[in-house]
Write a structure and sequence with these properties.
Layout: H1 4-48, E1 49-51, E2 58-60, H2 61-64, E3 70-72, E4 77-78, E5 94-98, H3 105-117, E6 127-132, H4 133-136, H5 147-154, H6 166-169, E7 172-177, H7 202-210, E8 219-224, H8 226-229, E9 237-243, H9 248-258, H10 262-274, H11 276-281, H12 285-301, H13 311-330, H14 338-344, H15 346-361, H16 369-374, H17 379-384, H18 387-390, E10 391-394, E11 402-405, H19 408-425, H20 428-435, H21 442-459, H22 466-476, H23 478-483, H24 495-510, H25 515-527, H26 532-542, H27 553-566, E12 572-573, H28 582-588, E13 618-620, H29 628-638, E14 647-649, H30 660-668, E15 676-679, H31 696-704, H32 709-713, E16 722-726, E17 731-735
Parallel strand pairs: 5-8, 5-9, 6-7, 7-8, 12-13, 13-14, 14-15
Antiparallel strand pairs: 1-2, 3-4, 3-9, 10-11, 15-17, 16-17
Helix pairs in contact: 1-3, 9-10, 12-13, 15-19, 19-22, 21-22, 21-24, 22-25, 24-25, 25-27, 26-27, 27-28, 29-30
The structure holds adenosine-5'-triphosphate.
Subcellular location: Cytoplasm
GO cellular component, one term: cytoplasm
Main location: cytoplasm
Length: about 725
């Protein structure tokens, strides 16, 4: 039995230790709050300013940031950047955002962090860490490091969080930007660490976080170009999103925001509207930035006849602007003559172009000093000459300097220039990469080279030659070669070769299996200044809705692309009017979301592309061979704010049985204004359409000649206030 002295002693001790813990807790809390405040300031400084092109061009993010169009998965839902962090993390749940080069992934990451740091959004989060892969690469491969130590490399002020409850009790967000740039070996079957102080390689720390084994309650956001996005197995991803760039309205907002002179902004916008490929390309923000720089320069000089209308022309002008700035800065010369500018910088451009191609072949976006030397560029040249204008130099972790072109598209442009120059010099060794064993004669060489480059780009699932190809085709045009005189000595008259190349692409385009390739081929044709396909697509879109149009499967993808990026809306959307095959209809499903844009469209007679119809009320998906995935796309369109769709026909699509759950989520949405839903699972004919078979239970119903109501009776529709109204070959559900 304890004595009274003992129990008094114990109770005093308890009281004191509780007081001590309390004091410690308060002190710890105060210390952590201070650290978090200073971390927020640090993050504001890191993300508040953007450097576009050069370090000197520092500008506040809010001055240029324009809203982006972000969707869930492959065009299935629209997401606001801030919603990314609303998700509650279940085991292994991360957000993975993909988007092509220059589409605005890093910008959206910075915007989200800035809004958080300024107290405007996501205030349930205590601390956000930005860990760009580009900078993580600078940590030596063989270095064993703990997560805490890794964070200290980026945020040294966090030293004092060690031995506190910071990692366990605070809501943390880790943003890993640019997975595609990672030189880490990301292997998800490899080792794991579970503790913030356990040392391991950086890739193991990353995979452990993604798998939810390390800091399971933290939120993880990873961004990547599409090609590298599948490095993360989908089972670890809770939410896929895609940055799709600017819609038409957002493009205009961008130029009006960035160009303060309103009259100049209007001139630039109206010029872009008149050029098809420029207008479409401007959904990519980096391209808007290059366009704004080039057109401002041209308009200041009043050289309107010089205004570029294709991607290649734009990049040639951009190169000229870079030369001019370099001359002004380092040589204090005001050289305006294009030919003289190019010829005086020829040596350097050629070396950079070689570097660009060598690294593109290896799929590298970052290079070290040794890579520069291998192309004859030495450091002194780099620090006093042209490279500083084209390269960014990074030495964040003070271990190694890395270089990269100000944007991948600039690298792709220079790489294409290199290949074209090799063709002019008949440097067959350099061209072997494309030509392999073929040995065409001189007359046929350019056509064979272009054809092989087209094939190479088509074969690459990762699409890393797509833009390069567009530049190579562009530079092959005589009109563009004229702009490059000074670098080139003469131009080539090659109409025949260009026509053959256009035919070759069109022929491939007819059989494209993948929507991305169809779209790239469409752009290639535009880059060669052939507008026939574009005109045809616009004709389909403008023609009367009740008329069948026989659009090929590939062109269905192009049509949806043009439609979505234009912000146009359809009144009565019937995919079968465009293409009567299941495969074609499926490619058209994403067009349902055009309804969303009814809100944004203002009627303007002169707008480009021309306005088509006013709003989408009726979507006819009867007998389109819809899959479960298509249902999800339709369902999420129904959840979009102010979706005006009032009638939806999904009858005769037996495979949507599997998508019924997804669909009901759309129908339950407070934004869904649907009044009539036509359903029933009777497919086209007994065969059920190409390459499909009718499920046994449906076959039985078909024989009896009546639809299978049981499938739809099970729908959780009744609970959402829907009831079957008409019984016939298709059920009609009416919102009660
Ligand atoms: N929302 C935006 N508002 C204004 N400008 C933008 C926006 N998003 C991107 N930009 C412009 O495009 C450029 C490239 O954007 P960003 O670096 O975010 O692209 P990214 O998708 O991360 O590309 P990459 O995959 O090549 O790293 C920016 O430097 C900026 O000029």
């Amino acid at each position: 039995m304890p004595t009274s002295y003992d129990s008094q002693h114990i109770s005093d001790f308890r009281q004191k230790s509780q007081q001590f813990l309390c004091v410690r807790f308060v002190l710890e809390h105060d210390v952590l709050q201070k650290i978090l405040e200073s971390h927020k300031d640090d993050m504001k400084a890191k993300t508040g300013h953007v450097f576009e092109g050069k370090k000197e061009n520092k500008i506040h993010l809010s001055k240029v940031y324009t809203e982006l169009f972000i969707t869930e998965g492959d065009i299935t839902d629209v997401y606001d950047e801030h919603e990314v962090l609303k998700m509650d993390r279940k085991e292994g749940n991360i957000v993975l955002t993909k988007g092509i080069a220059g589409i605005g992934k890093t910008f959206s990451v910075h915007k989200l962090i800035l809004d958080w740091a300024e107290g405007k959004a996501n205030q349930h989060v205590d601390c956000v860490f930005l860990l760009p892969f580009r900078e993580m690469n600078l940590i030596k491969d063989d270095k064993e490091i703990s997560l805490h130590e890794l964070l200290l490399e980026f945020y040294p002020d966090l030293k004092e969080v060690e031995n506190t409850k910071f990692y366990e009790e605070y809501k943390l967000v880790f943003i890993f930007d640019g997975l595609d740039e990672s030189r880490l070996e990301v292997d998800f079957d490899w080792k794991l660490v579970k503790c913030v102080n356990a040392r391991s390689s950086v890739d193991v720390l990353f995979t452990s976080l993604v798998r939810g084994k390390l800091l399971p309650s933290a939120l993880i956001w990873v961004t990547s170009r599409p090609a590298a996005a599948n490095l993360i197995p989908s089972e670890y991803v809770g939410l896929f999103t895609e940055v799709r760039g600017f819609t038409d309205q957002q493009k205009e907002d961008y130029f009006r925001k960035r160009i303060i002179d309103e009259a100049q902004a209007s001139r630039i916008i109206s010029h872009i509207r008149t050029s098809r490929s420029l207008y479409i390309m401007c959904h990519i923000p980096i391209f808007c930035w290059i366009t704004a720089s080039v057109l401002q320069d041209i308009l200041v000089k009043n050289d309107e006849q010089d205004i570029p209308s294709t991607l290649t022309e734009m990049y040639i002008h951009f190169l000229l602007i870079q030369m001019k700035m370099k001359n002004q800065k380092y040589e204090k010369k005001q050289e305006r003559d294009r030919t003289k500018l190019l010829s005086s910088n020829k040596g350097m451009i050629l070396k950079l172009a070689k570097l660009a191609f060598e690294q593109l072949k290896e799929e590298n976006v970052m290079f070290y000093e040794t890579d520069l030397k291998a192309c004859g560029i030495d450091e002194s040249e780099e620090s006093t000459g042209l490279c500083t204008e084209i390269f960014k130099e990074d030495s964040v972790l003070h271990e190694r300097k890395v270089y990269y072109f100000i944007h991948l598209s600039v690298q792709e442009f220079l790489a294409a220039l290199h290949v074209f120059l090799c063709y002019l010099k008949l440097d067959m060794d350099e061209l072997k990469f494309f030509l392999e064993n073929s040995r065409p004669n001189k007359k046929e060489l350019l056509y064979v080279l272009l054809r092989k480059a087209i094939d190479k780009a088509k074969e690459s699932d990762r699409g890393h030659f797509d833009l390069f190809l567009r530049f190579l085709l562009g530079i092959s045009l005589q009109s563009n070669q004229k702009l490059l005189i000074g670098l080139l000595n003469e131009t080539l008259e090659n109409k025949n070769c260009i026509n053959k190349t256009i035919q070759y692409i069109k022929q491939l385009q007819n059989n494209d299996k993948c929507p991305d390739k169809s779209i790239n081929h469409f752009f290639c044709i535009l880059e060669l200044q052939d507008r026939t396909l574009y005109k045809q697509i616009m004709k389909y879109l403008k023609s009367e809705s009740g008329q069948p149009k026989a659009v090929s499967n590939s062109n269905c993808s192009v049509l949806v692309y043009v439609l979505l990026m234009s912000g146009e809306v359809l009144d009565d959307f019937d995919p079968k009017m465009f293409n009567n095959t299941y495969a074609g209809c499926r490619r058209l499903v994403p067009a349902v979301r055009c309804c969303r844009k009814a809100l944004y469209v203002e009627s303007n007679e002169n707008s480009f592309p021309p306005k088509i119809l006013t709003s989408c009320h009726l979507a006819r998906f009867s007998d389109c061979g819809l899959t479960e995935q298509c249902c999800e796309t339709v369902a999420s369109a129904l959840q979009l704010e102010d979706c005006p769709m009032s009638e939806l026909d999904l009858s005769h699509n037996y495979s949507i049985e599997a998508g019924v759950k997804a669909l009901s989520a759309g129908l339950k949405s407070p934004h869904c204004h649907l009044e009539t839903l036509r359903s029933a699972s009777v497919p086209r004919g007994a065969s059920g359409g190409p390459g499909t078979s009718v499920p046994p239970h449906l076959r039985c119903h078909l024989r009896r000649g009546c639809p299978d109501f049981s499938l739809w009776e099970d729908l959780p529709l009744r609970s959402t206030g829907w009831g079957v109204d008409v019984c016939g070959l298709s059920n009609t559900w009416i919102k009660s």
